[in-house]
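Lab notebook: predicted structure, single chain.

Context: the supervisor wants predicted structures on file for every construct in the current expression panel, including those that have not yet been purified. This is the next one on the list. No modifications to the sequence; it matches the entry in the shared construct table.
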Amino acid sequence: MKIVVGYDPLEEKALDALVRSVATHTQRAISIDLLNEEKLRSQGLYSRLMDKRGQYYDLISNAPSATEFSTSRFLTPIINQSGWVLFVDCDTVFLVDPHDILAHVDPSKAVMVVKHDHLGKEGVKMGGLAQTSYRRKNWSSVMLFNCDHPSNHRLSLHDVNSRPGRDLHRFYWLDDSEIGELPAEWNWLVGVQEMPDAPKLAHFTLGGPWVEGWQPTEHDDIWSWYGNKV
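Prediction complete. Output recorded below exactly as produced.
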């Protein structure tokens, strides 16, 4: 199984917890690749215009970005080309074996996501960063890509580097019928939604104990169990 993780140098501790959560729940082979913006730019895969004075600002979208990988995540099917590949934000932790998500694959779908009805009305997220409200908010934070699906071949490097983020995050290159649905427990938005009966993946989209100045809140213990694990 292959997992692609959105990487941001400000989120190193969150990334460490994610990697530990994977190791905790499986002994089967998993490849973890990071979407490192500096590396992607050096390889000629990412050339998006960004202003990094203060919070990241996407000049093409004319909107703030909370992380370096806000749009580079959509390189996942382009880079990998074949097979089922799971993209996750780095502020997630697995609560079960990641392989379990493969029980939900549907070969007729180009991508599978948890279809949240959430617009990001909180206004801010981790570290007090501004967040943008848009259609299909958080669908793209956990994406199981069918890289063999022909419709994903419509997505090009040019698109990822030049289209407004709002288009990419709503999967503009796909027909709605090609977007499959994962059970809600595979992208539980901590602090935004009620905890499911049996969550599989916890997404700390508003931040967590790794954020400087974080005020303790409910469910911090879930992240801390992995974040503090030796």
